Amino acid sequence: MKNNNPETFIPLSNEATVEIATEAMDAVLDIYTSSSIRKNFSWLLTGNIVTELSLFAVLIVLAKLGSAQIQGRFLLCLGIVTPVAVFTSLGLRALLITDSFNLYKFYNYLYLRIISCAVSVIVCLLIGFYLMLYESSYDKSFLYAFGFIAGFKAFDFVSDICYAAFQKKENMKYIGISKGVKAIGALIVTVILLWFTHSLTITMFGWLVLYGSMTLLYDLPKTKKYYPLYGHLNFKNIAALAKQSVPLVISTVFITLNVNLPRYIIAAYYGEDYVGYFGSMSYVSVAMAMIFVAIGNALLPRMTDYFDNTPSAIWPLVVKAALVVVVICIPAFFVCLLYGKMILQLLFSPQHAQFVEVLWIFAGASVFVGLSSLMGFVGTACRAFTASAIVGAVVLVVTLIGGLILVPKYSLVGAVWTNAISNIVGFVLMTAVVTWYIVRKSAVLNKVTVLKGYSNDYQKS
What phi-psi label fits residue 91: left (phi over 0), alpha (psi between -120 and 50 degrees) or beta? Predict the structure, then answer.
């Protein structure tokens, strides 16, 4: 697998891909107990927390200084742009991190990411033009805001490939600083511009300037410390990278669409105001998901090691993690049940508080969000990538059918029940998938052990 010329195109076989992934995971296991991992994890967790809290504060500001319609338009635009951006991002961050032998130069990843982001902006603008021309509720101001959101997401995904470089070099500090500054800056820009202009379009233009400045003035210069940003443009390598990304990007797109699909249906039947109400209350799931993802990432190296050596040992770990999920979700549910209406009135508006039942269901169903997320990480540890993509497709179909049946009849309550049902289906299917993988792996390891025993007996005789 040695490659003296990094610019030479080398198609990766399945065995080579497994070898790269295995060596990368071994490296993770080696550093997991080191003192630096705690510092890096702290930077990354801090950046994520600041980002989510700032975005939640932005929703509050949009509701307080703007209106439910402005808030809903922001969430709807973000819900349309994000799946497009995720799809065109091609999962390059994971490919770069697991490219242990540096078969491709960093600038190959960067060039492909820039190209994909440009495609993402073009596709989003076409979608915006279509909505403006054929949907009477969308005007030019919507198109401008939509375009600016597509632009800042493009810069955000260019930064994402820089984050991959930082992560590969085990320097999470730069990621935490970049994400934190952008999140706090976006909140400040929103408060100032919305206060003086009451315009979502101008506010999103401010976000575009902020994200573009951070990408060009911080993320890329910091990346240059580790990798050159320019080099020979090898289209063969870029095409190879794009081809390898297909399995990775499919699952991610299904997950992203599944999260945003109820918002599309709500917008079609009830308008942007209701998207704002729904999006505000869904943040209880977003907050919980941040904890669930942290749990899954913490357990992933150990689960991977267990799967390679003693697959059945995964189950006690999963049971303990599931108990933690339940323990976290129970108090959150009772807080929302007892104080949900007051919280919605205080943070958003009396109109939001009318849908407090939606908040209750979100909080109650968060346990299935956590369990589904946990089984997704188990699937990753088992390397069940294709099966995970199939499960994602099935869950997306369930969400679509459930949304079309329940949302028109039950409004936001129908949407949140659709969300809950899809997470339950995802949890059940992924549990079945990982069970099959673990049983199969255990059988293979047992057979290998028996054959080794026969071999040893033969040698002794």
Answer: left
